Amino acid sequence: MPIPSAIVTLVLGMILVLSGLWVGQNVNLLPAAASTNAPLYDELFAVLFTIGTILFLGIVGLLIFSLVRFRRRDGDLGDGVAVEGNLQLEIFWTAIPAIVVLFVGIYSYDIYDRMGGMIPLADPHAMHGSMGSAVMPASVEELVTQDVEPRLWGGIGSPGGTEAGLLPVEVTALQFAFLFHYPEGDFTSGELHVKAGQTVELRMEARDVIHAFWVPQFRLKQDVIPGQPTVLTFTPTLPGQYPIICAELCGPYHGGMRSTVVVHEPEAFDSWLASNRPATLALTAPLATG
Amino acid sequence: MTLSLPPQTSHPSNLQPEGWLRYLSFSLDHKVIGLQYLVTAFFFYLVGGALAGMIRVELLSPISDFMPRETYNEVLTLHGTVMIFLWIVPVVNGGFGNYLIPFYVGARDMAFPRLNAVAFWLIPPAGFLLIASYFIAGAAQSGWTAYPPLSLTTPAAGQVVWILSVLLLGGSSIFGGINFIATVLKMRRPGLGMMQLPMYCWAMLGTSILVVLATPVLAGTLVLLSFDIIAHTGFFNPALGGNAVVYQHLFWFYSHPAVYIMVLPAFGLVSEILPVHARKPLFGYTTMVYSILGIVFLGLIVWAHHMFTSATPPWMRLFFTIATAFIAVPTGIKFFNWLATLWGGKIALNSAMLFSCAFIVHFVFGGITGVALAQVPFDIHVHDTYFVVGHFHYIVYGGTVFVVFGSIYHWFPKFTGRMLNEPLGRLHFLLTFIGFNLCFAPQHWLGLNGMPRRVAEYDPQFTLLNQLSSVGALLMAISTLPFLVNVVWSALAGQVAGDNPWNALTPEWLTSSPPPVENWKGPAPLVTHPYGYGVPEGQIDLKAVSGLEIWSEGR
Predict the structure, then answer these.
(1) Average pLDDT over chain A, rounded to whole?
(2) What is the pLDDT of residues B170-227, one digit of tens each?
(3) In the 3-class helix/strand/coil scheme, how is B404-417 assigned residue by residue?
(4) Which of A194, A288, B77, B384 has the most CB atoms at less than 10 Å from its CB?
């Protein structure tokens, strides 16, 4: 007696879901996770990868099965079955993606919130700022001509940044380099040095064209747009050296616009900061541009 | 519907050439114009492909060593512009649209034949202008997106020529869009209802609505950009008080719908191909129509997902995430409907079917990465990386271009009266399929791990995968050879097809191959069931089953 098709389908579905879960948990496509953002991102990635694998394998499996099972045999000139549709089935496969998409959307919103992406929305002052600058020409002129508190275009925020004490760094992006100015030590470096566990606040400005600040290991990217001072905060966690990459086409040497972020152990960072006080500025500057 | 007379086609004056010279003339015949579009677009496909080949050669090594960096940026700008505006948009809209839509609505030509010819004849000068800019003044270097302030600071001449060329192509696209809307809505044969039209008509109607709503925005934006370049106005120049992000909003207000302008017609073409070769009706006609309309609506309100890292306010990121992800719903409906169309059919595994099925595989993959990209936190990491490059090539190449090839295999007998060679077609499919996946699948990993797009040099750890990708590109280049040989040889000496080699029911097959000037010798046929294939459920097809099956069916 043949096995009823409902049971076969059920078993296949279970195998499909399990293999999707396995792939999502065990196949790692991402670089090292080196900031508080990164584990959150990886969590979202695993969920999306799992759902994606299940859908992709399911659909491709169904397609290949149909092509093999329902292929036209030689000499067969007949037609298939004249099924024009099935409303219940169609409602079913409208509802399933809708639910999946809704779930993914809510989940990624939650992740985004935990990354600090929604902070400016919660901050009434920031809200006010964004309302005010709806009158574009006036506010930009203000921004250019005088030092009234400029509107800061938020990138991602980092939760819990205020307690530990922020490390402020002023970033200037220009063709074709990033310059990092440390207000604490009043010196400029071509590399970004940060302390593991301490939240960094990058105050970014672009001089000429749009650049983008990207550190793959931090899962973080922010465009730096001329005329829009932008703040990006993040907390590095894993000591090491990671690339800083310009991700927005900025001219002929775009591919060469790279730098390094060094995440130090706390003591090492303090000594690095001390050794770079203005007296040694002349030494670091040539290194930086290289 | 008020039109009961066939349109008074102007009788070609004696000055109009006959024979093959028609294809070089200002012909008003929609079939001639359709083939003009197809061949011209294919020429630009080869140009764009050569440019892609240059990019892949440069990326064989992690240092910039094959061409000067400025040239590399010119090449990637030209590659994007040529492939979008001169290949995919003209071929799926102008090419197949012009050839098929009048047949499908039962008309003898498009609503505005002269406008149609003008729309086509804008394309060759615009294309040659664009390519000539490279040789005369240096082409644009700011990518096909031409973001200011970069596009304001790179050499002005190339950028202005680029704008001029895109404006001409946009104009051509708008003319075509108006023509399709008018033809589908007003030129239908009396007695033919909207819900009886083949699905490609609905796809072209939806596409044309997008073209007419979105393209003028691009045109206006580019005119402002050209003012910024030529007259030093400050619309988008932050140094003069302008705003660079406004350009991005305006640009993507067109350029995201442009993705649907490139894929909706492909959806329509697949909906024509699958039922014929699976010998089954198109599953879920009504939901297919509504999902097209849903995609058109949603497609207009998702543009800012290209700008998640451009300091957009959080509420905007949230809205565009949700809107974008929801496009997966109507799109999903279409894919499930196609799978259901195949289910229980008698599927002929010919080249047209293979390309269409590969389209389903690729588009599902690109759709899944697309839903992931719609999620702001996901996008922030991979935006402007090779992940995105991989994603959109799966959509526009793995999706649309595969459908274009499938469609050529399907309609070539109609165009020429001769069949394409099937073994060569399968070879073409195999090479394209392997080459395409080898080229673009590794790029997802590259993007996740730190390779930004539009670079001539990269981290040496990515060398191996980039070389693999380049091998894939080489296979894709080689795959065009059997295709070109096949097309030329079959057009001259292929097996004679007869009027209706596929036993299809849509109206273009109910005439001779190639069709006469006014499409049908007699009155236009009234096809109210374009997908009326198949035997009713429960009825056993005596020709197809063995005695054993009949016997076991009865038990």
Answers:
(1) 81
(2) 999 999 999 999 999 999 999 999 999 999 999 999 999 999 999 999 999 999 999 9
(3) HHHHHHHHHHHHHC
(4) B77
Q: What are phi and psi of A180, to 5 degrees?
A: -115, 120
Give just the sign of the alpha carbon dihedral B351, B357, B358, B359: positive
Q: How confident is the model at residue A130 (pLDDT cuts 50, 70, 90)?
A: very low
Q: How far is B283 from chain A, CA to nearest CA, in Å?
A: 5
Cα(B506)–Cα(B500) distance, integer angstroms: 10
Domains and CATH numbers, chain B: 25-554 (1.20.210.10)
User: What ipTM was predicted for this assembly?
Assistant: 0.90
Split at pLDDT 50, 70, 90, the class of B24 is: confident
Taking alpha carbons only, the member of B498, B537, B533, B42 closest to residue B273 is B533
Between A9-18, A140-149, B277-286, the lowest mean confidence (pLDDT) is in A140-149
Burial B44-79 (b: 16+ CB within 10 A, else e): bbebbbebbbbbbebbebbebebbebbbbbbbbbbb
Mean of the per-residue pLDDT values of chain B: 91
d(CA B331, CA B287): 11
Interface test with B, best of A35, A121, A127, A210 (most B CBs within 10 A): A210
Chain B interface disruption, residue of A106, A111, A248, most B CBs within 10 A: A248
Q: In A, residues 149-188, which contact B (CB 8 Å cutoff)?
A: 153-156
Task: Give the pair of three-digit tokens for residue B275.
Answer: 């039922």
* Chain-chain contact of A230 with B311 (C-beta, under 8 angstroms): yes
Are the beta carbons of A90 and B149 separated by less than 8 Å? no
Instruction: Quickly list H helices, A30-184.
Output: 37-69, 87-115, 119-122, 124-132, 136-145, 161-164
pLDDT digits (tens, 9 = 90+) for B385-426: 999 999 999 999 999 999 999 999 999 999 999 999 999 999
pLDDT exceeds 90 at position A112: no
Residue A59 contacts B, CB cutoff 8 Å:
yes
Interchain CB contact of B364 with A (< 8 Å)? yes
Give A 224-283 residues with CB within 8 A of chain B.
Answer: 225-228, 230, 243, 245-256
Chain B CB contacts of A52 under 8 Å are: 368-369, 371-372
pLDDT in tens, A185-228: 888 999 999 999 999 999 999 989 999 999 999 999 999 999 88
**Cβ contact (<8 Å) for A56 and B318?**
no
Domain chopping of chain A, boundaries: 5-66+94-115, 155-289
- A75 in B contact zone (CB under 8 Å): no
Sort strands A211-215 and A200-206 into parallel, antiparallel or unpaired: unpaired
The CATH number given to A155-289 is 2.60.40.420
In this complex, which of A144, A208, A243 lies closest to B153 when CB atoms are compared? A208
Question: Is A33 in CB contact (< 8 Å) with chain B?
Answer: no
Average confidence (pLDDT) over B506-519: 91
Which positions ≥6 away from B330 have C-beta within 8 Å? B290, B291, B292, B294, B295, B298
pLDDT surpasses 90 at A247: yes
Given CB atoms, is B154 within the 8 Å cutoff of chain A? yes
Instruction: For residue A121, give the nearest of B314, B349, B459 by CB distance.
Output: B314
What is the C-alpha separation between B485 and B428, in angstroms, rounded?
A: 10
B542 pLDDT exceeds 60? no
For chain B, the first-to-last Cα distance in angstroms comes to 52
Beta carbons of A204 and A190 less than 8 angstroms apart: no
- Per cent of chain A over pLDDT 70 is 79
Cβ of A101 and B328 within 8 Å? yes
- Using an 8 Å Cβ cutoff, are B420 and B464 in contact? no
